[in-house]
Every structure is written in C-alpha cells, then in structure tokens.
Amino acid sequence: LGRQVHFKESVTSTQKIAHQLAYDGVPEGTLVVSEEQTTGRGRLNRSWHSPKYTGVWMSLILRPNLPPAKAPQLTLLTAVAITQAIEEVTGLRPDIKWPNDILINKKKAVGILTEMQAEADKINSVIIGMGINVNHQIDHFPKELHSIATSLSIELGKTVNRAELIQSILLHLENLYERYLQHGFYPIKLLWESYAISIGKRIIARTITGTLEGLAKGITEDGILMLEDDQNCIHYI
Ligand code: BTN
C-alpha cells in the first residue's frame, strides 16, 4: 500500500481527489496526501478542520473483492492500524470510540471517513480518508473544539515526525489488510475490541437521522455496532 503516492501542497479534500483517481482506474493502494485541505470533510456531512503542515490528511484507495456490506470492516481495520502506529511512533495509548474515532485522554485526535463506489453487489473501490491531528497547538483548533479535540503533540509535549507516522500507518494497514484478506474479520475484530472503550457502556450514537441511546453490546461479524435500547430492542448501526 502507498506505493503510488500523490503528494499535494493544498487540495479541497483528499477524498475528492481519491474518488476521481479511483474512477480513472488507478491501482489498489494508491494514496493521496496533502499538507492542507480547504474543505476537508467529516462524517455525517460535517466539515473537518485541516490546517497546513500540522496534520496528516490522506485518503487511501482499496479494491477488495468483497460485497459492499463488508466495507464497515475496513473502517475498523483502519482504526486499529492507526492506533498501533500512534502507539509505535509516540508511545501514547489511544482508545477507539465507536465507530472510528481515536481518542487520547478522552479527546479526539483522529477521524476516519470511509466511502465506497460499488457496482451491482461488488465493491469497485473503497476510499479510506484519515485525518490525524499531529502537531497542532490548542489555538490551531477553532474555539468550539477546544474541549473535545486534541493532537498527538499536545498529549506528548513534543512534535511528532509526520512522515514517520505515515510510514508506520501504511505498514500496519498493509499487515492487517493481508491478514484480513487471508483469515477474514475475526482477528481484526479481536484487536479492535481490545482498544475499544465504548463496548459494555451506555452510549449515544449519532446517525444520519438523529441519535440513539443505549448499551453498546458489541460488534457483529460484519463490523456493525449492536446497541440495546431501554426497551431491550437491539439496533444495528
Ligand atoms: C470524522 O468525521 O471523524 C472523519 C474525518 C475524516 C477526515 C479525513 S482528512 C483526509 C480525508 N479527506 C477529507 O476531506 N476527509 C478525510
């Protein structure tokens, strides 16, 4: 993975560029990295703050031979790879919060956005967008994020080498992705659960249509969260 890298100084969104490249037929493993995004996108139509030279803003193109329903598994796999890379490069101990936020000391340092193009019942490409707050100082964040967002350097007290972090993420991703293609999701699920903080706790899950509150029971084999509401009804989200 990452053998073909498109490195940019500034883009609207690496997701957008990766979608176009995928459509043009570039090979699996192609990576788009940018120093800055002017209109970075987050989940649920939110924006993603991506200032210059401070973070890792990148999108990876995968082309697994799988049905579209398996795509959420790749998000969880990516969360595990980034968590392992952060541990390796910084020594920090991140937690994963369902579905794909990575928190350090309870504040969000990483977001993952997975989007796919599918035809009939087959994935054509999956674009995995990764946003990592690396060398931000607290005043690089907009005020409304101060209490909920953080960066690796804030938590570590020193700057982190972004190239080294990207390299480590790609190595971990490659390793997990190969394992996943050979042995399926189960080994990845175990790793994900070992880093997850939400399972067994009451959570409020945001969905496109609103919020759902209940007990996070675990994840299914497909990588879907099972949430039990107060009427003991299980929702799959
Ligand atoms: C989230 O809402 O938590 C997901 C944030 C994903 C941000 C990354 S940064 C690189 C890629 N390009 C984008 O526009 N978004 C993703």
TrEMBL record:
<feature type="binding site">
    <location>
        <position position="108"/>
    </location>
    <ligand>
        <name>biotin</name>
    </ligand>
</feature>
<keyword id="KW-0805">Transcription regulation</keyword>
<comment type="similarity">
    <text>Belongs to the biotin--protein ligase family.</text>
</comment>
<feature type="binding site">
    <location>
        <begin position="41"/>
        <end position="43"/>
    </location>
    <ligand>
        <name>biotin</name>
    </ligand>
</feature>
<keyword id="KW-0092">Biotin</keyword>
<feature type="binding site">
    <location>
        <position position="37"/>
    </location>
    <ligand>
        <name>biotin</name>
    </ligand>
</feature>
<dbReference type="GO" id="GO:0004077">
    <property type="term" value="F:biotin--[biotin carboxyl-carrier protein] ligase activity"/>
</dbReference>
<keyword id="KW-0547">Nucleotide-binding</keyword>
<keyword id="KW-0067">ATP-binding</keyword>
<feature type="domain" description="BPL/LPL catalytic">
    <location>
        <begin position="1"/>
        <end position="181"/>
    </location>
</feature>
<comment type="function">
    <text>Acts both as a biotin--[acetyl-CoA-carboxylase] ligase and a repressor.</text>
</comment>
<keyword id="KW-0804">Transcription</keyword>
<keyword id="KW-0238">DNA-binding</keyword>
<protein>
    <recommendedName>
        <fullName>Bifunctional ligase/repressor BirA</fullName>
        <ecNumber>6.3.4.15</ecNumber>
    </recommendedName>
</protein>
<keyword id="KW-0436">Ligase</keyword>
<keyword id="KW-0678">Repressor</keyword>
